[in-house]
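Researcher: Go.
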Amino acid sequence: MKTETATAASRRGGDNVRQLVPRIREEILSGRIEPGAPLRQDEIASRFATSRIPVREALRLLEAEGLVSIIPNKGAVAAPLDLAELVEVYEMRVLAETHAMRMAIPELSNSRIDRAAAMQDQMERAGLQEFGRLNKQFHTLLYEAAGRPRLLAHIENLNDVADRYLRFTIKALQYADRSHDDHRQLLEACRRRDAEEAVAVLTRHIADAGETLAAYLSTADGPMNRT
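Model: Structure:
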C-alpha cells in the first residue's frame, strides 16, 4: 500500500512538473517575469497551487533551456539578457535552420507551402503580441518536411531562447515589416524549389535579425542597460 501511495505521489509530481514548465516558460518569454527577477519557490508553489518539489524540478529543466539561472546559495532567477548568448544563439540558428531548410526543399508539397503562406497572412494581420509564436510556427511548418525530429527539437529550443530578445525589441525597432518581406521571399524560393535561394534568404533573414537585435541591446537605451 505504501509503495502504491508513493508511486501515485510520484506520478502526480511528474504531472505537476509537466504543467509548470510551459507556464513558467511563457511568463519568462513574455516578459511578465523580467530578466534577473528572483524565482522564489514558495511564491511559485503558492501561485500554482502545488508544492516546492515540482517547482524545483521545473526550474532545473528551464535552466537547461537557458531561461533560468540557478545561483548557489542565492536561488533561481530568470536568466538575464546576455549579448554573448544572443550572438551565439543566432549563429547556431543560421547553421541549424539553413540545414533543415536545405533538406526540406525537395520534400515540400504545394499544400505545405500554401499552409505556410496562409500562416504568413495571419501573422501580418495579428498584433505584435502574437508575432513570436506565429513566427516560430511558420518556420517549423517548412522545416518539418525535412523529417528530422531531433533537429527540429534543437531549433525549437534555440527559438525559445531567441524569442526573449525578440519580444524586447520587435516593437521598439518596428522590425515586423522587414521580417514579413523576408518570409514572402522565402516562400517564393520554396515554390520554385530553389534550395540555394531559400538558404540565402533564410541566412540573411536570421543573421540580419541577430545583428539588429545585438546592436539595439548594446545601446544605452537598450533593455540590458536600463536601470
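Model: The mean pLDDT is 87.
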